[in-house]
Amino acid sequence: MSTGYVLRRRVAWGFFDFDKTLVRQNSFGLLCQSLGSKVKLVQAISGACFSSGDNDHDVRQRVRKAMYRQVLKGCKQSDIEEAAHLIGQRLAYNDCVVKALMGLAEQGAVNVVVTASPRLVVETILKAVNLPIEMVIGTELQFSNGHFTGELLGPECVKAEKVVRMRLLQPAETLQSNAVAFGNLPDDADMLHAVSIGFSVDPRTGVVHEAISGEEFQGCEFDGLSLHQSHNHS
214 and 100 in one domain? Predict the structure, then answer.
């Protein structure tokens, strides 16, 4: 009996957002809470929110940059890894997305996590769980003498940048014809539209509720709101 959902059409690649998609929480927020004092957290958030910006995304981006530079700067790499390990024990995985991931692996697909959170953090978390994930693509941290400098190596792995990183693995044509992706809207719209089948996950409930391309899982009932594993699936 299959341990996961399977797609009507086999694909070679599966791309998964991490925070509020594969897991229900935000791992970066938990990391900052774990390693930063309440005073630093408040200062970083308030300073970023009162800076000038054009939209909500700009505010969130400024908050994240403030967290990197004011909260996490100076942390040892080993401290970040230890915090990530402890955070991993607190995370709740989205059952529907995990079953999709398992099903894709059973079909021979390569599963890749594409996350805005630091790659080091998500890789550390995933090492402790038995999931068929071949690679993690994420935001890269800059270290000097074993300490985080507060700066990133390259752009943050968010929105369109996720697609840029995915296309370093496979050309756009392959992604459009032979890949699926799971993410949450609106943040992952670029990633979901860059593949042949894109599924959005409600970040509040964890429910997979929209197949952007109109495709659905084999052996699952699609009621327009959520994907359910069929009772006669075997």
Answer: yes
Strands 135-139 and 179-183: what pairing?
Answer: unpaired
Between 163 and 37, residue with greater pLDDT: 163
Query: Cα 78 from chain centroid?
Result: 22
Tokens 């593949």 correspond to what residue?
195
Q: Average pLDDT over the chain, rounded to whole?
A: 83
- CA–CA dist 21, 6 (Å, integer): 18
Confidence tier at 136 by pLDDT (50, 70, 90): very high
**133/54 same-domain check:** no
Nearest CA to 114 out of 28, 61, 183 is that of 183
Torsion, Cα of 45, 46, 50, 54 (10° steps): 20
1 in a domain, yes or no? no
Q: What is the pLDDT of residue 88?
A: 96
Closest C-alpha to 217, from 231, 229, 202, 205: 229
Are 143 and 161 contained in the same domain?
A: yes
**Rounded Cα gap, residues 83 and 30, in angstroms:** 9
Distance in angstroms (rounded) separating the CA atoms of residues 10 and 178: 8
Q: Which residues contact 217 (CB under 8 A, 6 or more apart)?
A: 5, 6, 7, 8, 100, 103, 227
Q: Which residues pair with 180 in a beta bridge?
A: 14, 197
41, 32 in Cβ contact below 8 A? Answer: yes
Q: Which domain holds residue 11?
A: 6-26+92-229
Pick from 46-60, 87-101, 219-233 the range whose average pLDDT is largest: 87-101
